[in-house]
Amino acid sequence: MFELYYSKKTGRKKVPVKDQVQRMKAVRIFNNNAVSTVTPDGREAVVIGSGVGFNKRPGDAIDEGKIEKIYCIQDELQTRLLQLLKDTSPEILRVSEDILNHAIDCGLELKNQLIISLADHISFAIDRYKKGVELPYLMLSETRMLYKKEYEIGCWALDHIKEVCGVSLPEYETGYIALQLASSSMNGNVAYKTLKLVEGALKIIKEVYGVELDPDHIDTMRLITHLKFLAQRIFSQMQWEDKEVDGLYQFLVAKHKKNRECLIRLRAYIEKTFSYTLNSQEEVYLLVHLSKIFYK
């Protein structure tokens, strides 16, 4: 893990920059724009800035005027961060931090270390784009429906990457960025499994009823929200109390022949893929949401 120690753009710092820089010397030169050092309080750090490492050798004083950011490093992610700084351009680091800050401003609770995975992904995405290599994100529509705020931030991110890096990445990259944001704001494994459950459930619903779902329709949004919370209960092992709902269950199942088929397939998919058996109350709530969409 690491923390932002100083930023020229925001002015955030732990001690006056002039005091810290006068006592900081280069320890290792990664490239012209990244140098490792030691802060006045004894922490290992990396200094970022255009030309800050140019013609420098270990032991040379660091030029205060070229410093844009200082990151203090904590042990567990030290190797990964140092490699990232060595191989990644300042523009990608900057745009990654901007995306992180924008997401936080939009209300997401994220950790600073997300900048590592964002920079990793953006760097590889730009490299793939320049080489003409396509890697489509196959769950784009599901991600848009399930993680709407994260998807909107992903759209903003693509515009910002174009502005800062001069590269127009494909629209599907929005999905990759949105999933990274969602994974960072919750347990990453839970975020992916939630997306997988919703994707599988929606595929079954579309096949059984032979329709496409409008992602912007209020009833579709409610269904997506229900599936999302169902997934989170499943993965946190918080099953609803199984209350007696047989009368309502039979009424909803009989409302259309497709209801029973859809429920059987959903039950089998969740059992096989996630080792979880839906109880009668959970099945009724699924039928209620489906009825709102298909049988008004």
Short characterization:
The protein has 296 residues and is α+β, with helices and mostly antiparallel strands.
List the helices and strands and how they pair.
Elements: E1 2-7, H1 17-22, E2 28-31, E3 34-38, E4 44-48, E5 69-73, H2 78-87, H3 90-105, H4 114-131, H5 140-146, H6 148-165, H7 173-185, H8 188-209, H9 218-235, H10 246-254, H11 257-274, H12 280-294
Antiparallel strand pairs: 1-5, 2-3, 3-4, 4-5
Helix pairs in contact: 3-4, 3-6, 4-7, 5-6, 5-7, 6-7, 7-8, 8-9, 8-11, 9-12, 10-12
Protein architecture, described:
The protein is of the alpha+beta class and 296 residues long. The chain folds into 3 domains: 2-86, Roll (Transcription Regulation, Sacy, Chain A), CATH 2.30.24.10; 90-185, Orthogonal Bundle (PTS-regulatory domain, PRD); 189-294, PRD domain (PTS-regulatory domain, PRD, Orthogonal Bundle). It contains 12 helices and 5 strands. A 5-stranded antiparallel β-sheet has the order 1-5-4-3-2, with helices on one face.
Number of strands: 5
Shape: elongated
CATH superfamily membership of the largest domain, which one?
PRD domain
Distance between the termini: 52 Å
Proportion in β-strands: 5-15%
Helix proportion range: 55-70%
* Total domain count: 3
CATH hierarchy: architecture of the largest domain: Orthogonal Bundle
Q: Residue ranges: pLDDT <50 for 5 or more in a row?
A: 12-21
Order of strands across the main sheet? 1-5-4-3-2
From N to C, what is the helix and strand string? EHEEEEHHHHHHHHHHH
Structural class designation:
alpha+beta
Number of helices: 12
CATH topology of the largest domain: PTS-regulatory domain, PRD
